[in-house]
Amino acid sequence: MIPALQGYLAAIGESLADSGTLAEAGAELGAVADLVERNAELLLVLVDASIPLPPRRAVLADLLEGRVRSEVRRLVDRAVAVVPASEVIVSFRWMADQLVLAASRPSGAHEPDDEPVLGKLAARNRVTGYAAAVFEDVSVGDLEEIEDQLFRFARVVEANRPLRVALGDRDLPVAVRQALVTDLLGGQAIPATVRLARYATRGGSARDFVSLLDALVESAATSRGWRVARIRAAAVVDDHQQGELAESLARLTGGPVELHVTIEPALLGGAVVEIGDLLVDGSARHRLDQLREHVLVTGAAASLFHEAPPAENGHPEGREDA
Q1: CA dist 164 to 3, 95, 119, 253, 306, Å?
Q2: pLDDT tens digit string along 265-308?
Q3: What pLDDT is stored for residue 276 in this prediction?
Q4: CB within 8 A of 189, min separation 6: which ones?
Q5: Which of 134, 133, 159 lies closest to 145 in space, CA to CA?
Q6: How many degrees, rounded to 5, is the angle at CA 170 between CA 261 and CA 110?
Q7: Residue of higher predicted confidence among 90 and 315
Q8: CB-based contact 175:167 (threshold 8 Å)
Q9: What would the pLDDT profile of 24-43 be if each residue is shown by its tens digit?
Q10: What is the rounded distance in angstroms from the CA atom of residue 24 to the CA atom of residue 26?
Q11: Is residue 72 over pLDDT 90?
Q12: Looking at the predicted structure, is the pLDDT value of residue 182 above 70?
């Protein structure tokens, strides 16, 4: 199943478990699948990839309004949005089965490490899918706070080697790593931030933990219409400089950009800017490395000319006596 839908279902499933309605929601999802399969016209609309996505989502939204609980409507809408059209009905039944299975577990028997193992990219998509469901339930103000808290937590983990090793150790039980996250963030962050960081240890790749946190920061910014630019600067960047840089990056990306600045004196001067797949290294260290490489290459080339072996007649190769 699509990893993004797996993560989304995990988040909605937690809410349903809290209200004790997992089984009911599973039954409703199964009924939705039955309804679609019995209605040839509706089925054709949902599985026809040539029909634009908004109308397909709107048809189901209108049909299900007032008939099933809001969590089921959200799951159906997300499946239509992220699953290939030909597999939508299969995804409904898969989600229904997962909810019923979760409901059948004894109370408190939820396994913290029950997510299937995925590759790094797929696991990251699963975590951001989980985040998509969480972000739907928070205010814009909370989104901004979540973004800031996750960014600062990522930098703490990145700078603390023992902590980074512990959270990136896939041989350490998920429950232990989640407890560590809770201890670090508990009382310091809002519940949604803790929830996201805990799921990153369960749904993501352990060795990708810091990158997962950064991906969640980007997702939070995107959810409120912004993109995140990570700035590593050799010295403090004042408000005026940040404003000019944000304006330049906004023109480059075509939308508002939020700067997250960290200070790294080892860069010696200048800054490194990362935004999405774009990397601009304007640091003094980078320029020195380039200069050093240029000097080495130039020196090596010069030695080839000045140390050419003599020809057999005792004169440099390629020359003859007049």
Answers
A1: 25, 34, 20, 32, 51
A2: 776 677 777 766 566 666 656 555 655 554 554 554 455 445 55
A3: 60
A4: 149, 153, 197
A5: 134
A6: 100
A7: 90
A8: no
A9: 999 999 999 999 889 888 88
A10: 5
A11: yes
A12: yes
CA distance 181 to 188: 11
> Nearest-CA neighbor of 274 among 254, 293, 260, 255?
260
Does an H or E element contain 298, and which?
helix 284-306
Helix (H, G, I), strand (E, B) or coil at 185: helix
CB 236 within 8 Å of CB 263: yes
Q: What is 131-183 written as a DSSP string?
A: HHHHHTTS-HHHHHHHHHHHHHHHHHHHH-HHHHHHHT-TTS-HHHHHHHHHH
d(CA 197, CA 178): 8
Locate 117 and state its tokens. Answer: 């193992």
DSSP code at position 293: H
Token pair recorded at residue 97: 């089965």
Distance CA 302, CA 4 (A): 56
Q: How many CA atoms lie within 13 A of 152 on its CB side?
A: 12
State which H helix or E strand residue 229 sits in.
strand 227-233
Supply φ then ψ for residue 228, to 5 degrees. -100, 130
Spell out the SS3 assignment of 71-140: HHHHHHHHHHHHCCHHHHHHHHHHHHHHHHHHHHCCCCCCCCCCCCCCCHHHHHHHHHHHHHHHHCCCCH
Sign of CA dihedral 129, 251, 53, 77: positive
Residue 97 CA to residue 289 CA, distance in Å, equals 56
